[in-house]
Design goal:
113 residues; mainly beta; seven-stranded antiparallel β-sheet; single chain
Length: 113
């Protein structure tokens, strides 16, 4: 949705299925993604094994995974995703529902054909 301004939002269709936790208990859950543009035309530098890569015109998208609990959509986790113009996804950070960073992934190799 690179045609949206900062603050623009959209939501996926909901999806449902069985989920088995680490203890072996299975329950049915309903999820959906909520997206928002949190920045446009921002500079971002990512670290690769070979050098740092700098990008301009980057769009930052917050991608929230929400679970239906009763009649409310509760935050389960979210991703901060960074998309460089004419390149695609260059950086992605995963956070839990309290805002603690769980995982960070920067682009390692980039070939544009």
């Amino acid at each position: 949705k690179d045609n949206l301004a900062t603050g623009g939002t959209w939501t996926s269709a909901q999806f449902a299925g069985a989920f088995t936790d680490q203890g072996g208990t299975t329950t049915n859950i309903t999820l959906r993604w909520e997206f928002s543009i949190t920045g446009q035309n921002i500079p971002v530098t990512v670290n690769t094994p070979y050098s740092n890569l700098s990008f301009t015109n980057v769009i930052r998208v917050k991608q929230e995974l929400r679970q239906l609990v009763g009649t409310s959509w509760a935050l389960s986790a979210y991703l901060d995703c960074y998309y460089a113009k004419d390149k695609g996804l260059i950086k992605q950070d995963l956070y839990n529902n309290t805002g603690t960073k769980i995982y960070a992934q920067d682009v390692r190799h980039l070939w544009v054909f």
